[in-house]
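Repro:
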Amino acid sequence: MEDVAIVRTMNSIKPGWVAARCDAARPIQNVRIGKEGEKIKGFRFPSESYIKMSQVISPIFAWISSDAFEEAKFPPLNWYSDDVHCMDLVRKRYAHFVSASYVHHIGSNTIGMNAKQLHEDAMPWLKKNRPEYAKAWFA
C-alpha cells in the first residue's frame, strides 16, 4: 500500500493495477529476472526496490483503483484475461505498476498446466471480441 500511495501522488497518471512481484509470473514481475545487464547485490537485483510501470501485469496479489475496477470488466477467459483487462484499461488511459513488494506464488496451479490447451480455449473469444489483441499478440 506504500507503493500505491506513491503512485496515487502522480497527478498526471490514473492508477489501474499495482501488483506485487513474485517468483512465478511474467518477466516484468518476476524477482528471478533482473533488468538486462543487472547484477545481483546482496541476494537481490537493485531494481527490485523500485516501482515500475507496465502495460500488463498479473494481479496475483494486487491493488486496483475503484474507478478502474468499474471501468473495465474481466473477460470470461482463463488464459489472457489479465492481458485483456490491462489493455482495456490502458485504452482508457490507466497505467499499471509493478510494486517493490513481494509475495510467493506457486504459479499456474489454479488455471491448469496444459499451456497449449489453455491457449486454444482462449483464442475463439479473443478473435471474436478483441481481434486487435489476437492479431498483435499472435501474428
